[in-house]
Predict the structure.
Amino acid sequence: MKTSIAFAVLPFFILPCYAEHSAGSRLYLQSIDSTETYIPADSTQSMTTKRIVLDAAVVNGNSSKKDIQMRSSLNIEKVSGQYMQDNFGASLMQSLSKIPGIKSMSVGSGESKPIIRGLGFNRILVAENGIKHEGQQWGDDHGLETDQYSIDAIDVIKGPSALSYGSDAIGGVINLQSITSPQTSFGGKVNIFARSNNESVGTSAKIYGRNGGLWYKANATFIDYADYRVPADSIPYYSYYIKLHDRRLRNTAGREADGALVLGYDGDGWNTSLRLSDVNTRSGFFADAHGLEVRLSDIDYDTSRRDLDLPYHTANHLFVSNHTEWHWEGGMIEGNIGWQNNRQQEFSEPVSHGYMPKPADSLERSFIKNTVSASMHVRHTFGKSTLYIGTNVEYQSNRRGGWGFILPAFRQLQFGFYASDRLAINDKFILSAGIRYDHGTVDISSYKDWYKTPDENGDLTYMERSENMFKAFDSFIWSAGINRNFGDFTLKANIGKSFRMPIAKELGMDGINYSIFRYEKGNSRLQPEESYQADAGIFYERKTFSASITPYMNYFPNYIYLNPTDNYREGLQLYYYTQSRVFRWGFEAEFSYSFCKNFELKASGEYLHARQLSGEKKGYSLPFSTPWSARTELRYTLPSMGQRQPWFIAMEYVIVGRQDEIVPPEEPTPGYRLLNASAGKSFQIGDNVLRLTLRCDNVLGTKYYDHTSYYRLIGVPEPGRNVSLMAAWNF
């Protein structure tokens, strides 16, 4: 019944929406929280409209950083394609980790998840062209299943954004843009890249073109990487030391194959696009993640550093979406609809464990989740007032399989409505306010082990890991903001309430999470997570100097988190989901100064303080809290002269503080310092451009530990020196 209702309402949201044209180029409308239109930077020379690249932002030719700050009371970073190329990492989040307040939670060499202001997992909403990406909810160890080389530009919203996006945007939003229409009949781009630490090699190719109003884009990416190296000869695992061959974490190799196709049409006052993407990954688990029984295994993990053997994980994310726009004088409608099919499989060597007999095959766990999403956003301007209204709905259905259990089968439905207003008193004084209502349900199915286990009375029985459970949640939230300009200064502030409904993983989980070395237990009594927040910003910009500080604070009456215990279950440390009152505050600060024409000095820093005000760990911080950090970069750029293409060289110094704010039985993590270097050069070859980018991370080969890394739990240091090279050919 719930499924039929969800599908019945979806056609209502398939509405034509708007297109805005200027100088022959399409402008792409961003988040409803920001009224700005801008041009992403992927199309390179194909875009004819004048634009300015401002470090991590691409804006219209008449815009400045000051203009950007006046367009929204939220803290928004606009990341260009050029920025992604100059700072490319092994994953999307590693490429974004230089932005103040943004961290990458890495598991292995090819997987990472976003952390914004110390919040991650389901508190950060990742969207692709306005549609929530449903792939990372399986756990903290599952990365974003998206191809960073198919992305045109990115909006990063630091801080709560639930007013427009709903649940899961309580900590921030990463909105990926990949449907910018090309303006030439034919063009393309080829990337070839390699990294030394894990000996990864890869290539990505894109072609695009248009004929009248019809246009297309196609992208394909292939990556292969070996076991990655760490500056250690052995790893402590409880009381046993695991020796490493050639300092490599065995069975951490992997492969990735992605493809995407976009077909679009730009009409007179309207446009539409259909995007199909398919992301396929296969990555190994560190062999000893499944426990010390690997010592008894018949598998020789040191045979080849590119060999991928048990245990390993496969993921396939199929994403089909439509984005349609229609506009009139003073207003617009935007409609999005999408279907996602996410397949996860974990394979491990079949061995008997405890009361469980030896399984017949190696498929330990499998999940197949289908998600249908739709949204509609309307904007209309009345004089100095701009009204926004919108709605969204999402239905998920997950089936499970395999002989191991960690997550139950479930069905989930969410829908919400919002309205907001932006009042421009004048061009230097703007007020905004909005409200939103959401309703969500989670329907979890019961699961019993396929083998018998003694109960409390000693009788053999099929133990129930998950019970039948139906939960319904309602939420009403609000937000208000102000933007004020005083000459060279811009002030902005936002206050409000956000929420996040608990997901099936938090409610019904019961099993070993091998990739992050712990046993996790859900809690059926969890209530929706709420947050009251205040976010502010002071920005200064004058000629060659700019500076900003963005303080924030959050109060959670019922923060959901995994509480570490001193107990062990099935040989691994037990974590269980619980809730407590939490107060958080922090800030980011950064400045930029250009001097001697060709030099630019940048510095940034961030600090976060968190305290639990109730519960078992009252007075302590939160698990895996990010420590303070600071970074300084000196960049030299030779400007273009005639046919000469610009080049740059940069040195970066990173300081990360010691993390003593821990939750027992966590251990403190020492601070560290890193030296990074990068350089890039563009070459004009006829009508084409070749761009070379060289990076060296951790130049000195420093041995250090990341407090947010799960490998820290078993004493695995971060990778050592890593040299990366990318060649990009634009034609």
